[in-house]
Amino acid sequence: MATAVRETAPERSASRPRHRGWWRWFTDNIVLLIGIAVLVYTFVPIGYVIALSFSKPSGRAASAEFETFTWDNWTTVCEPDGLCESLQLSFAVSLVATVVATLLGTLMAFALVRHSFRGRAASNLLIFLPMATPEVVMGSSLLAMFVSLGFNGALGFITIVIAHILFCLSFVVVTVKARLAGMDSRLEQAAMDLYANEWQTFRLVTLPLAMPGIVAGALLAFSLSFDDFIITNFTSGQSQTFPLYVYGSKLKGFPAQLFVIGTLMFVVSLLLVVIVELWRRRRPT
Amino acid sequence: MAQSDGEQRSGAPRDLHLTEVSKRFGDFVAVDDLTLTVPEGAFFALLGPSGCGKTTTLRMVAGLEDPTAGTVSIGAEDITGLKPYKRPVNTVFQSYALFPHLTIFENIAFGLRRRGVKDVKRQTDDMLRLVQLEQYGGRKPAQLSGGQQQRVALGRALINEPGVLLLDEPLGALDLKLRRQMQLELKRIQTEIGITFVHVTHDQEEAMTMADTIAVMNSGVIEQMGAPTELYENPRTTFVANFLGQSNLVSTDVVDSSGSTVIVDCHGQKVGVDESRSHTDQGKGWLGIRPEKIFASQRDSEDLEDGNQLTGGVVSDVSFVGVSTQYLVRMPWGQELMVFEQNTGQRQSFKSGDEVDLAWSPQHSFLLDADQDAAAGAVREDVG
Questions:
Q1: Which of A193, A205, A283 sits opposite B62 (nearest CB)?
Q2: Cβ <8 Å between B110 and A191
Q3: CB contact, 8 Å: A284 with chain B?
Q4: Do residue A284 and residue B85 have CB atoms under 8 angstroms apart?
Q5: How far is CA A33 from the centre of its chain?
Q6: What is the CATH number of domain B2-233?
Q7: H or E stretch including A122?
Q8: Do B84 and A209 lie within an 8 Å CB cutoff?
Q9: Cα–Cα distance for residue pair A160/A94, rounded to 1 Å
Q10: Which residues face B249 on adjacent strands?
Q11: What is the homologous superfamily of the domain B249-382 according to CATH?
Q12: With an 8 Å Cβ cutoff, are B1 and A195 in contact?
């Protein structure tokens, strides 16, 4: 179709060459142009972060414009007060929350997909609720609950972790469930048929096959937890996670090292995606 | 597991027995009080349309389904309640169910490793050679063609030298040409290693090509069991007559069943049926004649063979299919009979509208109880 149109194009453009040629090029490439525009729209803020990480600030805080190039921000990452401490706390919270949520979520997903029990349909529905509840509401209710449980003076690492596990859990369950639902249960029957007992079947067949779903769930949980501001803000007490630190420094002016952290995170996630993609291509499943 | 090798095999024959086995799913009876014995070393086919209970039967032998009643045993050993991994039985699954995350080598070695066998490498290499996949050991199942995957599934089961190998429609996913090739291959391997094969299929040609014994299943019960030729030549039910090949079933009345040939009245014309093939001796009966057993000849000609004769037919349809010409002949009572004539060049060919008489030998027909549906088990495209 498209080639047929192209072949007749020279004849017609002979009569009105300039206008026709430009318009044709535009209509042929409109999808590509829109695509490029969307990509630019997506990546400009990230590019901005990367650029600013190399900008020498004129005052104490970073300014919104690129001034002179410098490596200084990269060598003094931990200099701003509390920045690296907040990062450390965020990593600790996210790691613990991810591990616990992934473990519990995977077990729940198995129960929901593989076993029929009273209330399974209800559980399937209820598991979506934490995702649907507005974070502000969840955060405030968690705070009220913690206070009434006597956590008032002890708000911090523990309460943040409890809150994060709560909202990460549903995402892990949903992700792992999707993977399990698509898995052929005959593979497990085949393993049992080939002398693997229940535990061996789980370890050698079920778990490796469910792994991509579990890893995806864990990554999702980590990034949700690491990123969370609203619920953390309610449940953190005096502790400061990285998002809280960033928000707090908005008032004083961002230290330029923030952009270094931002760039590093971007690079690390990009690397992870590339590694996973390469690994996936190496072993088709 | 261990008992599948050596010591037990040398002793009593390890026949597979199913005794009064039933399986119900809620109200639905999948398998109904089934009793059968598969002798050790047999190539046994369970043949039937989908939903007849053949796969459920197989799964009960494998231990993937628990019977509602009855027992399954191999030799003297009752395996009814045993877990699948405790049974000396292996399965080739319909979809192959190869482990996608393991290499071909590891797929085949899976059973050996679970049983803690010593020389996994040598045995697996031998099996790769037997199924002609030596150079594919390092690949993943997704990188193999359907036929190759099928051979992996076979090798993965065979390497354990099971007492009974179960095959659940193993060739169903292959194209026709490959299927024919694999049928011969399977038969060769079975003859070579002498393991009992229980093969589930809905393809009657596949069953007849490979099996020594066929059990035709319908609605959870075995309709008839026997060698392929016996089932084909002497079916006991209309279902078997129609499901294995094609049959003309004509409504008749039994006139005389005292002699070695039972005489029936077929719409005014008397024909005979061998007593050994008569499964009813009074009242009405379905006279069954295979289309290729009938000879057609021109009306009132000298060529008409001796034996049973039905006169007054008119050719209503002719289709030439190469090895034979298939006629539909409308009889005086309105029924159309199928008549297949071999293209030997020796016999006259007819065209639509020709008047013909039909003949066949009394040993080549059978008589069935008239209480059954004449269309049971028939492939719909041949009707009307």
A1: A193
A2: yes
A3: yes
A4: no
A5: 28
A6: 3.40.50.300
A7: helix A120-126
A8: no
A9: 9
A10: B288
A11: Nucleic acid-binding proteins (2.40.50.140)
A12: yes
Nearest residue on chain B to A212, alpha-carbon basis: B101
**pLDDT of chain B, 384 residues: tens digit per residue:** 444 444 444 456 889 999 999 999 989 999 999 999 999 999 999 999 988 999 999 999 999 999 999 999 998 889 998 999 999 999 999 889 999 999 999 999 999 999 999 899 999 999 999 888 999 999 999 999 988 999 999 999 999 999 899 999 988 878 888 888 888 888 888 888 889 999 999 999 899 999 999 999 999 999 999 999 999 999 999 999 999 989 999 999 999 888 888 999 999 899 999 989 999 888 899 999 999 999 998 888 777 777 888 999 999 999 999 899 999 999 999 999 999 999 888 888 899 999 999 999 988 999 999 888 888 877 644 433
Nearest Cα residue in chain A from B153 = A190
Tell me: the pLDDT tens digits for B30-85?
Answer: 999 999 999 999 999 999 998 899 999 999 999 999 999 999 999 888 999 899 99
> Beta-carbon neighbour count of residue A6 at 10 Å?
11
What top-level class would CATH report for the domain A83-254? mainly alpha
Cα(A192)–Cα(B198) distance, rounded to whole angstroms?
A: 19
Q: Dihedrals φ, ψ of B135, to 5°?
A: -85, 5
- Say how far apart CA B108 and CA B98 lie, in whole Å: 9
| C-alpha closest to that of B92 among B149, B47, B39 | B149
pTM, two decimals, is 0.77
**What ranges do the domains of chain B cover?**
2-233, 249-382
Domain positions in chain A are 2-75, 83-254
